[in-house]
Specification:
GO terms for molecular function: (3S)-3-hydroxyacyl-CoA dehydrogenase (NAD+) activity; 3-hydroxybutyryl-CoA epimerase activity; delta(3)-delta(2)-enoyl-CoA isomerase activity; enoyl-CoA hydratase activity; NAD+ binding. By secondary structure, the protein is an alpha/beta fold. Helices cover 49% and strands 11% of the residues. The protein is globular and about 85 Å long. The protein binds 3-hydroxybutanoyl-coenzyme A. 3-hydroxybutanoyl-coenzyme A (3HC) binds next to strand 5 and helix 4.
C-alpha cells in the first residue's frame, strides 16, 4: 500500500466468531488497488485466525461498492504522469478471489446495501451467499466502459442468474433491483437495512453449520442449459450484438469469454476473461468511453460557479409557455420528476393539444410497461393548463418554449417580469436566439438563462444551459440542480448564435449539401455517416426535424456567420414543391405507411436545379468519394466550428463539447466526442485537409479557423486547456 492509500477495508471480529470486512473508499467504495490489497490482507488474516469462524463483506454507508476504481484505469493504461501498477495476470481474479476467498474453509456472506456494481458485484458473487436490502442494485456495467467484467463476473453471473439473463445484464449494462435479484437467485434473502449485518452474520454461521447451502458459484451448473442450447443462446446474443453495435468488438469478446467457460470449464473461462480484460483496457473504445464517463461528471464542475458554495434553491412549481412539441416534451420531463407544472397556451385548442401531447408521452410509457396506470394518473395530475398569467404569481421557474420569433419572445419576457415573483428564474428554450436580445425589454438580466432541451425533450439526455454575462451564479446552480433532478446531463455554455450544439453542428448539413451539389450521392453520404455510428445521416436528420426548422435555423447562421455559411437552395426548392420532410412523407427520402424511409429517384431533378443556381458543376472526384473522405469532409468542418466555440470560451472545457456532441447530436460515445475524436487525427492533418478543400471548393466554408491553424503550427491536442480564451462565461 502507498503512503497515502486510496481507500481501505477494516475488519472487526465479533464474539460470535464472524469477521466483518467493510469496504471504505468514498464516494462509491470503489475497489482501488489499495482497497483490493487491504481486502486481501484482511482475508488472509481472517482465514488464519482461530477466533474467526466465518466472514461477512460489506460496504460503508449504504453502498456495497461501485466496482473497480475507474480512476486507476488511466495508470494501468500507462497515461502520462500516472503510475502504472497493474496486478500480475490472474492475481485478483484467480489467486485471491477464487483460490483464497471462494475456496476457503471458512464461509463468506456478502451484505449488500445500495450499489453492487462491476467488481463490487463480482466480489459479492465470490461469497457463498448474498443478503441484500430492498434498496440494493446489482449489475455488471463494464461493457459501458468498453471492457468486460474482469473479476470472474462473466463466469459466475451466468451460473447464478442463468445464461440469458446474465448476457442481458452484461450486454445492456443495466443493473437489477433486489427483488429481481432474489427471484433470479442472485441474492438469497432481502432484509431491512438495520437487520442486514446481523442476518448476514447468522447466515454465515449457518453455512458453516451446514444449515444453509455452502455454494461456490463458479462451479454451479444447475442454471446452465445443456451445451447445444447454451450455444444457441450465445449465437443469438452474438447476432443481436452485431446488429445493435456493429462497430464494437467488446460485446462479442464478452460472449466468447462466457462461451469458453461453458465449453471448457469455468477456470479456463476465468483465464480467458483475464487476458481479454487486459487487452480491452488498452483499446481506443475503452479510452473513449472512459473519457465520456469522466467528461459527463465534469460538466457540473464550473469554475467560478459551482465552487462558490451556493446551495440550489428549491424549485416547487414550474410554468411552461407553449405546448408545442418542445413545450410538451419539457412538461413531460418535469412532471415525470414530480414537479407541478402549469402549461400556458394562447387558446383552448392549442392548450388541449399541448396537454394531449404530454398525456400521449406518458401513455407511451404505460404501453411499454414502464409505468403503471396509477402512476400515470398521479403524474398527469401534476399538470395544469392556463390561458393567462394569473397562476404564475407563485412559480419559481418559467421555461418559455414558443416559436423562434424575437419580438414575441421579448414581449413574453416583459410580461413574465410583471407577473412572476422577483426570485423566479426566467428561462428560454430558444435554440439559436441571443438571450440578451430576448431580455432586452426587461430589467431582469440576472435571472434570464437558456434552458435548451433537445427533441424529444423527455427522452434526449442533454440540457444545454446558456448563461449570459449577467446571469447570476445562483440561477445557474438552481438550473443545474433541476437538470440533475430530471435526469439530464447539463452542459453550461456561453451566449452566442446557436450556442454550442447547434453551432458546432450547423456545418454538418451544409458540408453534405456542398458535396451533393458537386455530385456525391445523398444516400451514400447518409450511409457512410451511419456506418461511422451516428444514429442517422444529415439528410435523414433534415427529414426528421422538418425543412421548416432546418431553413429557420439555417437562416440564423447565414445572418450571423455569412463568411462561412454554404448557401444551397436545395432544401428551399424541395420545400416549394411541398416536400418538407417526414411529416409531408417526402423529403430527401419518401416515407411509406410504416414511416420507413426509401430513396427517391426524383431527388435528382431538385439537385440539378440547385446545382445550376449555385453555378457549380459535378466534380468527378467528389462523385466517387470513399466513405472515409465523406466522413472527413462532413465532420472536419464540424471540428473546425467546435474549435471556434472552444477558443471563444463558449464552452469551459473541450470535454463539455464532447459531451454536448454525444448527448445532443448522437455522436458515437465510443469515439469519445467530437474534440476527442479530432485529436485522434491530430490538428495538423485536419488543418491541412480543410486548407486543401478550402482552395479546391468553397474558400469560406472550409477555411480552418485561427485556433486550429495555431494548434497545427505548434502541435499538441485541440482539447488541451486554453491559456488565454476570451471566456464569455
Ligand atoms: C474488474 C471489474 O470488472 C471492472 C470494474 O469494476 S469497472 C467499474 C464498474 N463500475 C461502474 O461502471 C460503475 C460506474 N459508476 C456509476 O455508474 C455511477 O458513478 C454510480 C451509479 C456508481 C453512482 O452514480 P451517482 O450517485 O450519480 O454518482 P456519480 O456522480 O456518477 O459518481 C460520484 C463520484 O464517484 C466516482 N465514481 C463512480 N464510480 C466510480 C468507480 N467505479 N471508480 C472510481 N470512481 C467512481 C465518479 O467519478 C464521481 O466522482 P466525482 O464526484 O469526482 O465526479
Amino acid at each position: 500500500m502507498g503512503s497515502n492509500p486510496k481507500g481501505r477495508t477494516t475488519m472487526e471480529v465479533g464474539a460470535d466468531g464472524v469477521a466483518v470486512i467493510t469496504i471504505i473508499n468514498p464516494p462509491v467504495n470503489s475497489l482501488s488497488l489499495d482497497v483490493l490489497s487491504s481486502l486481501e490482507d484482511n482475508y488472509r488474516e481472517a482465514l488464519h485466525r482461530d477466533d474467526v469462524k466465518a466472514i461477512v463483506v460489506t460496504g460503508e454507508k449504504g453502498k456495497f461498492s461501485g466496482g473497480f476504481d475507474i480512476t486507476a484505469f488511466g495508470g494501468i493504461q500507462g497515461g502520462k504522469g500516472r503510475s502504472a501498477r497493474a496486478p500480475k495476470p490472474g492475481y485478483v481474479s484467480v489467486e485471491v478471489l477464487t483460490d483464497t476467498v471462494e475456496a476457503a474453509k471458512k464461509p463468506s456472506v456478502a451484505a449488500i446495501d445500495g450499489m453492487a456494481y462491476g467488481g463490487g458485484l463480482e466480489v459479492a458473487m465470490v461469497c457463498h451467499a448474498r443478503i441484500s436490502t430492498a434498496n440494493a442494485q446489482l449489475g455488471l456495467p463494464e461493457l459501458s466502459l468498453g471492457i468486460i467484467p474482469g473479476f470472474g463476473g462473466t463466469q459466475r453471473l451466468p451460473r447464478l442468474a442463468g445464461l440469458s439473463k446474465a448476457l442481458e445484464m452484461m450486454l445492456t449494462s443495466k443493473p437489477v433491483r433486489s427483488e429481481e435479484a432474489l427471484s433470479l437467485g442472485l441474492v438469497d434473502a432481502i432484509v431491512p437495512a438495520d437487520e442486514l449485518l446481523s442476518t448476514a452474520r447468522r447466515w454465515a454461521l449457518e453455512i458453516l453449520e451446514r444449515r444453509k447451502p455452502w455454494v461456490a458459484s463458479l462451479y454451479k451448473t444447475d442454471k446452465l442449459e445443456p451445451l447445444g442450447e447454451a450455444k444457441e443462446i450465445l449465437n443469438f446474443a452474438r447476432a443481436q450484438a452485431r446488429k445493435q453495435a456493429p462497430n464494437l468488438k467488446h460485446p462479442l469478446v464478452c460472449i466468447d469469454v462466457v462461451e469458453e467457460g461453458i465449453v471448457s470449464g469455468p477456470r479456463a473461462g476465468l483465464w480467458k476473461e483475464d487476458t481479454a480484460f487486459q487487452g480491452l483496457l488498452h483499446s481506443d473504445t475503452c479510452k473513449s468511453l472512459l473519457h465520456i464517463f469522466f467528461g459527463q461528471r465534469g460538466t457540473t464542475k464550473i469554475p467560478g460557479i459551482t465552487d462558490l458554495g451556493l446551495t440550489p434553491r428549491r424549485i416547487k412549481k414550474v410554468a411552461i409557455l407553449g405546448g408545442g412539441l418542445m413545450g410538451s416534451g419539457i412538461a413531460t420531463a418535469l412532471v415525470l420528476s414530480n414537479y407541478p407544472v402549469i402549461l400556458k397556451e394562447v387558446n383552448e385548442k392549442f392548450l388541449e393539444s399541448g396537454i394531449g401531447r404530454v398525456r400521449a408521452n406518458l401513455q407511451s410509457s404505460v404501453k411499454k410497461g414502464k409505468m403503471t396506470q396509477e402512476k400515470f394518473e398521479k403524474t398527469l395530475s401534476l399538470l395544469k393548463g392556463a390561458l393567462d398569467y394569473e397562476g404564475f404569481r407563485d412559480v419559481d421557474m418559467v421555461i418559455e418554449a414558443v416559436i423562434e420569433n424575437v419580438s414575441l419572445k421579448q414581449q413574453i419576457f416583459a410580461d413574465l417580469e410583471r407577473y412572476c415573483p422577483p426570485h423566479c428564474i426566467l428561462a428560454s428554450n430558444t435554440s439559436t436566439i441571443d438571450l440578451n436580445l430576448i431580455g432586452e425589454k426587461t430589467e431582469s438580466h440576472d435571472r434570464i438563462i437558456g434552458a435548451h432541451f433537445f427533441s424529444p425533450a423527455h427522452v434526449m439526455p442533454l440540457l444545454e444551459i446558456v448563461r449570459t454575462q449577467r446571469t447570476s451564479p445562483q440561477v445557474i446552480v438552481d438550473l443545474l440542480d433541476v437538470g440533475k433532478k430530471i435526469k439530464k446531463t447539463p452542459v453550461v455554455v456561453g451566449n452566442c448564435t446557436g450556442f454550442a450544439v447547434n453551432r458546432m453542428f450547423f456545418p454538418y448539413t451544409q458540408a453534405a449539401l456542398l458535396l451533393v451539389e458537386r455530385g456525391t450521392n445523398v444516400y451514400q453520404i447518409d450511409k457512410a455517416i451511419t456506418k461511422f455510428g451516428m444514429p442517422m445521416g444529415p439528410f435523414r436528420l433534415c427529414d426528421l426535424v422538418g425543412f421548416g426548422v432546418a431553413v429557420a435555423t439555417g437562416s440564423q447562421f447565414v445572418v450571423n456567420f455569412p463568411e462561412r455559411t454554404y448557401k444551397s437552395l436545395l432544401i428551399s426548392l424541395m420545400q416549394e414543391d411541398k416536400r418538407a420532410g417526414e411529416t409531408t412523407r417526402k423529403g430527401f427520402y419518401v416515407y411509406d405507411d410504416k414511416r420507413k424511409a426509401n430513396p427517391d429517384p426524383e431527388l435528382t431533378k431538385y439537385i440539378e436545379k440547385a446545382r445550376n443556381i449555385s453555378g457549380v458543376a459535378i466534380d468527378p472526384k467528389l462523385a466517387k468519394l470513399s466513405d472515409k473522405d465523406i466522413l472527413e469532409m462532413v465532420f472536419f468542418p464540424v471540428v473546425n466550428e467546435a474549435c471556434r466555440v472552444y477558443a471563444e470560451g463558449i464552452a469551459v472545457k473541450a470535454s463539455d463539447l464532447d459531451i454536448a456532441s454525444v448527448m445532443g447530436m448522437g455522436f458515437p460515445p465510443y469515439r469519445g466526442g467530437i474534440m476527442f475524436w479530432a485529436d485522434s487525427f491530430g490538428s495538423k492533418y485536419i488543418c491541412s485537409r480543410l486548407d486543401e478543400w478550402s482552395k479546391m471548393y468553397d474558400g469560406g466554408f472550409f477555411k480552418p479557423c485561427s485556433y486550429l491553424v495555431e494548434r497545427a503550427a505548434k502541435g499538441g491536442p485541440l482539447s488541451s486547456p486554453l491559456e488565454q480564451a476570451k471566456s464569455r462565461l
